[in-house]
Design goal:
The protein has four helices and six strands; from the N terminus they run αββββααβαβ. It is an alpha+beta fold.
Length: 155
């Protein structure tokens, strides 16, 4: 019995789905680590990542501004995208017709919501973009940069 390979468009959509949903997971800070640094001066922002630092909290200056660090963002999206893609590969083995229809419907809704969230977050927020978090504010840190870390899970 020969196995029929998937069409190229199905693999392409799985990759696009993984990237968009991974980007939405990272930007929403749904599952993230909050890094609270030791500052030499009085105050400063807190950092978020999943697991790499990719943004500051948006409430320290204005509710619609923040710093976005591309190195951490790309790394986090890569990690979440690979995780989501591996789940999609596992789910693609399901042969039940109704289960596949339900998964397709839920996947379409998830993709639309994730795409809408990513679009709003990237275009409404006033992000100041840097390559790495140490490039933006390297003068404020001690040697032990992050004495406190908090894990956030959909809170």
């Amino acid at each position: 019995m020969t196995r029929v390979s998937k069409p190229q468009w199905a693999l392409t959509w799985q990759v696009i789905f993984s990237i968009v949903v991974g980007l939405a997971m990272v930007l929403s800070n749904a599952i993230s680590i909050e890094y609270i640094p030791n500052y030499k001066s009085d105050m400063g922002p807190e950092y978020f990542g999943s697991p790499f630092i990719m943004s500051t909290d948006t409430t320290w200056v204005n509710s619609f501004t923040g710093e976005l660090y591309l190195k951490g963002l790309f790394s986090d999206v890569l990690i979440w995208g690979l995780l989501i893609y591996s789940v999609l590969l596992f789910l693609s083995r399901i042969q039940n017709k109704w289960a596949r229809r339900i998964m397709l419907s839920l996947g379409t809704i998830t993709f639309i919501l994730a795409f809408a969230f990513v679009s709003m977050d990237l275009f409404i927020m006033d992000w100041r973009v840097h390559w790495n978090y140490t490039d933006a504010d390297a003068t404020n840190f001690h040697e032990e940069q992050y004495p406190e870390k908090r894990f956030h899970f959909f809170d």
